[in-house]
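Task: fold both queries, return tokens.
Query 1:
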Amino acid sequence: MATKNVKRQKRATKTRSRIELSENNRLTVFRSNSHIYAQISNHDGSKVIASASTLDASLKGDNNGNIEAATKVGKLIAERAIEKGINQVAFDRSGYKYHGRVKALAESAREAGLTF
């Protein structure tokens, strides 16, 4: 199992280096078995601008590790970013495949007004 995680981290490093060169704000996604987290940081990752997760009181429910919960997190992170004046971000999927919960979060953030 360790090699699977190492490969994911290598993919994430490559993506992040490209995002840092483009100098866009970065929407980063982390998923665990039971929760999903999203945060928007500046291009080099030194400052978090907005964040949302299934641990927020407004989103907490019985099952936080499914596509429905990821959709809610995507909508919430987009609303918080737009409040701060951020409309365009680069999507950092942290080396995860673009399907399931990661895809649901990205699509709901796009529908709520973020562009990437």
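Query 1 returned. Query 2:
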Amino acid sequence: MVLFILGLIVFFGIHHTRQLVSGVRDNAIARFGLQGWKGIYALLSFAGIALMVIGWMQWRVDAPDVYIQPDWGHYVTELLVLIAFVLLSASSTPTGYIKQWVVHPMLIGIILWSVGHLFANGDLASVLLWGVFALSSIWHIIAAEMRHDPHPRSKGWQGDVGAVAIGVIFYFVFGYWLHGLLFGVSPF
């Protein structure tokens, strides 16, 4: 459990530096340059994820159940995670209508991915993991809206087709191959 909590602190600490401690990001960019800051950010993010996953896998064996997931929960998980993969793909491609309709596709995708996993996992370790991801994403949406970040404008539907195709391909590759390899459980 200690590794899990440490991973949460490292991962979400670096992701919330802008909201938690004013000036840390700007000072780090001034000192190390933008690429240096991105390197530090990526390294700490990766370390946090590794600690979370290792800690979650160890703790989950003994973690008490918070609730019993419904028999149909895995169907909801599959649907929400599929939509999440499409939104995550759309967040980094030059899409038009998806980004216009779903203003924060990466964050909404993470919320759907997290909530989906709550339908398939009812142990305390999983509830904390997926719950923190969902709450963090909601926090980021609120912060972006409070900063009045500009909303994207549509550039046509062509990029949306690519985003959907890429998201679906990654969904099946991850679901059929990587998920079982990394976590020992095949979602299908």
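Both queries returned. Flag for query 2: The mean pLDDT is 85.
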